[in-house]
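Support request, please re-run this one:
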Amino acid sequence: MARVVVGLSGGVDSSVAAWLLKEQGHDVIGLFMRNWNDASPTLEDECPWIDDSRDAMMVAEQIGIPFQILDLSSDYKTRIVDYMFAEYAAGRTPNPDVLCNREIKFDLFLKNALKLGADFVATGHYVRREETTTEQGKTYRLLQGLDPGKDQSYFLCQLSQEQLAYSLFPIGHLQKPDVRQIAAQAGLVTHQKKDSQGLCFIGKVSLPDFLQQQLKPKTGKVVLIDREHPEVMAHITRMEDPLSTPEILAKRPVFTPEMGKILGEHQGAHYYTVGQRRGLNIGGTGLPLFVLQTDVVSNTIYVGLGEDHPALLSKALQTDASGIHWVNPAYKFVVNADHKLKARIRYRQALVDCQIKMTESRQFCIFDVAQRSVTSGQFLAVYFGEELICSATID
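Re-run finished. Output below.
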């Protein structure tokens, strides 16, 4: 059997992952990652890492495995938190969970696990890993978790073959209720613990409160864009025209303050993201307001009435071809060829049919059905069947 270091987070999923590996006869070590270390009362008092580490330690004691706490807070701040601030300041919406998996859990954590003599690291992610052997060697496929409501493959879309070679996902074949049942039958203290909500220091603290630690408030205008504005109508025409090229389809409306009606003020365009509804604090509009676009240069937010506002829809998106990350390089796209695949642009989104078109410098993803709230800075994850094959940052 193998030596496996499990990332014990203090939640039920990683607890069951560790328990299953121990039951299978592996030499299991539990390792808790402390990723946040900030003395400011606004954040530290709201971050449950102490409770989580205590729960992780209790689970390790119940299972009968060694337990350690690994402090990665300095690297986490540099690689993840500073990245978040920089992206929001530039007007993009980052996905720190994806970067945390690539940079922390399956890089720094993995390297520390190898120092402990690990053959593998394991986490409580709802994904599956499949190993295949050909004449060229071993290939590792990253497959969706079998629980469609919990599949977390999107969060692992930046992993490499080298990282997957050392990775195990013991609960990827299970449904969430089954995981809780296993935990209850094993008597694990986490069996009824609620799922965590994203990053600990954002889970209970509002995102604007967190961002204000470095991105200071700056008053700007909230501008209402009518759905029949010429720029919006031109966008609809481009999406509906069967002769539109990928380059044309990937274009988004471009608004200026003069195009709409000023509804009120906000405290910083960098606090908002496309598709956002809450946090505008403007009433009396009848239909709810949604953010259509942000401009951090002019510090303007453009909004529209209703979640079906045409400016929220995109028939295509583009990424830098040189920035495509291949989870499985065997699928590398051919330039100027059409590739019928599936994709998602956010976690929990159902896979949608798309066509990938490549040029020498750009990757275009054309959706069969226009998608809502395509957001710069997020990740496009591309699938062949149930396998996640590549990803890229959305322009």
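The CA atoms of residues 337 and 357 lie 6 Å apart. Residues 96-115 form the longest helix (20 residues).
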